[in-house]
Specification:
- The complex is a heterodimer.
- Chain A is 23% helix and 42% strand.
- By secondary structure, chain A is α+β, with helices and mostly antiparallel strands.
- Chain A has a five-stranded antiparallel β-sheet, with no helix packed on it.
- Chain A starts with a strand and ends with a helix.
- In chain B, the strands form three sheets. A five-stranded parallel β-sheet of chain B has the order 2-1-7-8-9.
- Chain B is globular.
- The two termini of chain B are 32 Å apart.
- The chains are: A alpha+beta, B alpha/beta.
- Chains A and B meet through strand 5, helix 1 and helix 2 of A and helix 1, helix 8, helix 10 and helix 13 of B.
Chain lengths: 74, 364
């Protein structure tokens, strides 16, 4: 039940945002994340944006996973 | 984005480290969240682990822990012609004492599946002569949504909207599990999306009071493998602490506004967990200020006496005391097409996942 998906805010009108989720557009409530900004990626759960996705942290995770490549075959 | 090759190499790295850290002594890791259970099976992660490392599902499938009497009340309400029930889809097939919402829907009850609780308000506005009851289940991820919906109903003065609430809280349940200690857990994979709301602090007691390692984990296969690796490192070094593998979504403070909305509408209360019993301070009840939205306090209903199936071991499975395959009903009397207990019903149910994916460890 705690399924949540990332989406990008492409429009924001007060407490309602339009998000792009892998090419599908949906309206989500910003009542729980009123500070979310246009262009940000947010985590969406059952019609609400519930958290901002930290792009710096995404990069760090990706880089870490990529670095592991050098140890993989030893 | 990572290429398939990069994912494979990173996975190889984590698996090799996990194997070298594992040793001979059996290690039990509990994935608390039902969404993790499904992600673990889908990615075939159990298959990759050494046999000494066992993943055990915890009490984090909201549908599974919702008690029979809640369903019986929802079913009783659904039989009243002036009532519309709105619910997340996974509640439909869960058996109550003598019926299910799916059976009542087939018999003509007005039960509507919603994606967002807010849809209940639209339905209420369009049906002013009916009373709309939203079945508010779920953990800290979902409860703020129900709270926001109540606040919205109040703001828009929608007077025919109610909630039947059975929200549960994760940290108190973990405390009870650890305190009971009948089949100890060596570490927790903590639910990433619950943590996105509540942050890290509510889990401090795991390491501090119970010396139990814990990692807040994401849901991608590499997230889960990395989290298991981090747990094994803590376990082998005997340095229990709280790690956050899912920093991209889980800030230390969580989502304070969501928590504030939640606390505005709900207060902590004792809660009944299916097969486990009443756990102190492990659930949420609407505050007195919002009693006008409380179905049970406003809409009279006669609920049948609740019966549990005698042989059902869901309570034991939900606390990790039994593996699904250790329940005598599993796969025999209890199957997804005719489930006895809720763990076999929900797609995120432990037993349903074990049944569907053949316990996740195939013999080569």
């Amino acid at each position: 039940m705690c399924l949540a998906v990332p989406g990008k805010i492409i429009d924001k009108q007060d407490m309602l945002a339009t998000v792009d989720i892998s090419g599908v557009q949906r309206k989500v409530s910003l009542m729980l994340l009123p500070e979310a900004k246009l262009g940000e990626f947010v985590l969406i759960h059952a019609g609400f944006a519930v958290q901002t996705i930290d792009e710096e942290e995404v990069k760090k995770t990706m880089e870490l996973f990529k670095e592991l490549e050098q140890y993989a075959d030893k | 984005m990572l290429t398939n090759e990069e994912v494979k190499k990173a996975a190889d790295f984590f698996v090799r480290e996990i194997v070298s850290l594992a040793g001979q002594k059996p290690i039990r890791i509990m994935e608390v969240c039902g969404t993790h259970t499904v992600a673990i099976f889908k990615a075939g992660i159990r298959q990759l682990l050494p046999t000494t490392v066992e993943l055990v599902s915890g009490p984090g499938c909201p549908v599974c822990v919702t008690p029979n009497d809640f369903l019986d009340a929802a079913i009783a309400y659904s039989k009243q012609p002036e009532i519309i029930i709105t619910t997340f889809g996974d509640m439909l097939k869960v058996p109550g004492s003598s019926s299910s919402l799916a059976q009542e829907k087939a018999a003509g009850a007005d039960i509507r599946i919603v994606y967002s609780p807010l849809e209940s308000l639209e339905i209420a506005t369009k049906n002013p002569h009916k009373k709309v009851i939203f079945l508010a289940v779920g953990f800290e991820t979902t409860a703020p949504l129900a709270a926001a919906t109540v606040l919205m109903a109040e703001k828009e003065q929608i007077s025919n909207f109610y909630v039947l609430s059975a929200h549960k809280l994760v940290p108190p349940a973990l405390r009870v599990l650890l305190a009971a200690g009948n089949r100890p857990v060596d570490g927790f994979l903590l639910p990433g999306h619950v943590s996105a709301i509540i942050g890290m602090k509510p889990y401090d007691f795991l390491a501090k009071e119970f010396a139990t390692p814990a990692v807040v984990a994401g849901f991608e296969p590499l997230d889960i493998l990395q989290s298991i690796y981090l747990l094994l490192k803590q376990i082998q070094r005997k340095e229990p602490k709280l790690d956050n593998q899912y920093g991209r979504v889980v800030p230390v403070v969580g989502n304070p506004i969501a928590c504030q909305r939640l606390n505005e509408v709900y207060q902590v209360a004792d809660a009944q967990w299916r097969g486990i019993g009443i756990l102190k301070d492990s659930g949420l009840a609407l505050r007195e200020k919002y009693r006008a939205f409380d179905a049970l306090k406003n809409l009279p209903v006669t609920v049948e006496p609740t019966k549990e199936h005698k042989g059902c071991q869901c309570g034991q499975v939900l606390t990790g005391a039994l593996l699904p395959t250790e329940c005598p009903l599993f796969g025999e009397i209890c199957k997804p097409e005719h489930p006895v207990g809720s763990c076999m019903v929900s797609v995120e149910g432990t037993c349903a996942a074990w049944y569907k994916y053949g316990a996740g460890r195939w013999q080569g």
